[in-house]
Specification:
The protein is of the alpha+beta class. It has a single domain, classed as Orthogonal Bundle (Arc Repressor Mutant, subunit A). It has six helices and five strands. It has helices at about 20-25, 30-40, 45-50, 60-70, 95, 100-115, and strands spanning about 10, 15, 45, 75-80, 85-90.
Amino acid sequence: METKEPKLFRFRDNEYPCCASLTMGIIGGKWKSVILFHLMHTKLRYSELRKSMPTVTERTLSLQLKALEEDGLVKRKVYTSKPPLKVEYSLTDFGKTLIPLIQSIADWGDYVAETYSK
């Protein structure tokens, strides 16, 4: 009897045992999906993101933005034409493919909050 090797999913030099694991490897954690949610429909400066997520530390926000940028989901644009330096974050075309997923996650959170919170 022939044993079939399990299919591994690869993304950016990482291997994942299933497609759900790959998705959560990219957007999982406490802050990545929150960042993506805030960037779904607009560009935001670092300070605007920080204000919209008041409990995140600056270090964590910076690290999560960098990880999302490295994965190709978020782009960072630096404006140097005049001081002070301005940096904006927005979703890449690849990042925009996550909008239906992030919106579904947000909708489910609203549903849980309305239906099961007391």
